[in-house]
From TrEMBL, chain A:
<dbReference type="InterPro" id="IPR046350">
    <property type="entry name" value="Cystatin_sf"/>
</dbReference>
<dbReference type="InterPro" id="IPR049897">
    <property type="entry name" value="CYSTATIN_LXN"/>
</dbReference>
<dbReference type="GO" id="GO:0008191">
    <property type="term" value="F:metalloendopeptidase inhibitor activity"/>
</dbReference>
<dbReference type="Pfam" id="PF06907">
    <property type="entry name" value="LXN"/>
</dbReference>
<keyword id="KW-0677">Repeat</keyword>
<keyword id="KW-0646">Protease inhibitor</keyword>
<dbReference type="InterPro" id="IPR009684">
    <property type="entry name" value="Latexin"/>
</dbReference>
<dbReference type="GO" id="GO:0005615">
    <property type="term" value="C:extracellular space"/>
</dbReference>
<protein>
    <submittedName>
        <fullName>LXN protein</fullName>
    </submittedName>
</protein>
From TrEMBL, chain B:
<dbReference type="GO" id="GO:0006508">
    <property type="term" value="P:proteolysis"/>
</dbReference>
<keyword id="KW-0482">Metalloprotease</keyword>
<keyword id="KW-0336">GPI-anchor</keyword>
<dbReference type="GO" id="GO:0004181">
    <property type="term" value="F:metallocarboxypeptidase activity"/>
</dbReference>
<dbReference type="GO" id="GO:0016324">
    <property type="term" value="C:apical plasma membrane"/>
</dbReference>
<dbReference type="InterPro" id="IPR057246">
    <property type="entry name" value="CARBOXYPEPT_ZN_1"/>
</dbReference>
<dbReference type="Pfam" id="PF00246">
    <property type="entry name" value="Peptidase_M14"/>
</dbReference>
<dbReference type="Pfam" id="PF02244">
    <property type="entry name" value="Propep_M14"/>
</dbReference>
<protein>
    <recommendedName>
        <fullName>Carboxypeptidase O</fullName>
    </recommendedName>
</protein>
Amino acid sequence: RAMELPPGHFPAARAAAVAVEYLRYLRGGPGSGLRLRELQRARRQDIDDVGHKYYLELELEDVLDKDRTVSCTAEVLYHLGSKTSAPDVQLTVQGELRSTEAADKEFYNRIRSLEKELVAENIPDSHGNVPPELEPIHLLAWVASGYVIWQNSTENTKFHLAQVKHVKQVKRNDEDLQFDFVLLLHEMVSQEVLPWEVTLLWHPQRGARVTQS
Amino acid sequence: DQVLHIVPETIQQVQHLQLLCSTFMLDLWKPLLPEDIRAGEDLHIRVPAPLVQEMKDSLAQHMISYRVLIPDVQKLVDQSMPRERSSHRQVSGGYVYTEYHPMEEIYQWMTQIQKNNSELVTQHILGKTFENRTMYYLQISQPSNKTKKIIWMDCGIHAREWISPAFCQWFVKEILQNYKTDPKISRFLQNLDFYVLPVLNIDGYIYSWEEDRLWRKSRSPYENGTCYGTDLNRNFNSSWGSVGVSFNCSSDVFCGSGPESEPETRAVAQFIKSKKSDILCYLTIHSYGQLILTPYGSTTKPPSNNEELMQVAKEAAAALKGKYGTSYRVGSTALILYSNSGSSRDWAHTIGIPLSYTFELRDTGTHGFVLPADQIQPTCEETM
């Protein structure tokens, strides 16, 4: 019932991008980011009255540690007439992602102890540079954009984070860190660059949560 | 080489780390001496490349967690101190090919390149942009009795794709630096001429430097000056306006008011038409995506010489991958990417140029259009 798809063609590539972005939202943090290394296999099933379901086998790599890869099997379901609902994504990750516990704690403490709230713009800059102290913020922007991209993807879109236009830390009374982002998302089919405001909360043990976008 | 950030949690971990430091003679960046390593305090160690995996395995074995602070120390060093100035000096007096250059500098570069290599290079006017800037192409041609076939390459049709003009400049430099010593290049030049247009969409490129880094289109005004820019790669006369475009000026794929409505498009089209019986290969360079795209974008029906097109493209992708392992996908735009019409590559093929390709250079979305300058060299080397 499920049709085999060429992994190099765009329908499978778009579904794979959604799976990767969803995973970035679930598992990303200031100390780690994942990137798609290869889409190894893709199948599609058209389910009457429901939508199109893609079955994917992916290999991902850690951007900070390229020799470290994990495999992932994913199911991406685009709902029929999907103008208002996000695709459903289920994933299983095989392999260990490197622990970032110590790095996360260090980042958390560093930001909490800032006297002035952190503000930055244009990450990366026009020449593609990211100052090392902003790399964790860049990776958190991937988490935030992962959420936005997952929520807004259809079979006719392929989004990537083009640049972080602006980020502002907002100090909180509870234990979470809060970052208000303005992200620029590039959509491949329309070629548009769309600004998106997202608020991300993050905590070393509890992980990330988007509260507003 | 990598720099690792570790916060040891117990005395045992501290001792193990001290042992690793002395056994491997590691370069401690913080603290300076192994005896100053403390539990609960930051540790930054530089690990030489051949020891990285072993080090990480040892840390994992002892349940010591780490973060990679600097994934490539050499890159960072190179970023702060541009190298290889001297090897470019004879070709064009110290131009740094591993940085992005604004249009003014590219104009100066073209003049210099012709001056320093006048036996091979001539600079010609192609036409003018909407904002009245001159479009120049470089002709690289070894004097000879026979008429040679032409390979045409244009870069920078989309303003934000900075790696593209960087590649065209690199390409010219590479040919001129090596044609006497590299047998492949010297054979090429015996039989072929290269025509290179380093920046097609000059107005847009300047705009991306001065106003909006992510601008794509040209800068011609529409709707009484309330809206700017045509997507030049939707403006050519190949199934113009049929699919993958917008007729709304505010769209990034606005195809213009008609095929070849834009002066930049006309300048390129007129020239290529005039030389078409001699042009063997049309190449247009874009980013990003790591793709070698063949005709067509407007239909999945393959072109008549599809087998040849795919064969050559697959060999190119394999050669490219052989350099640094970078994977490029190969196939028609309509299958690999999306539907589009009015592209320069499709137009070149329909008027009879047999080998017609769009290259989408690095990367696949991690940096996208803002590819770091330190990737210029590897991108260009592998693409050569």
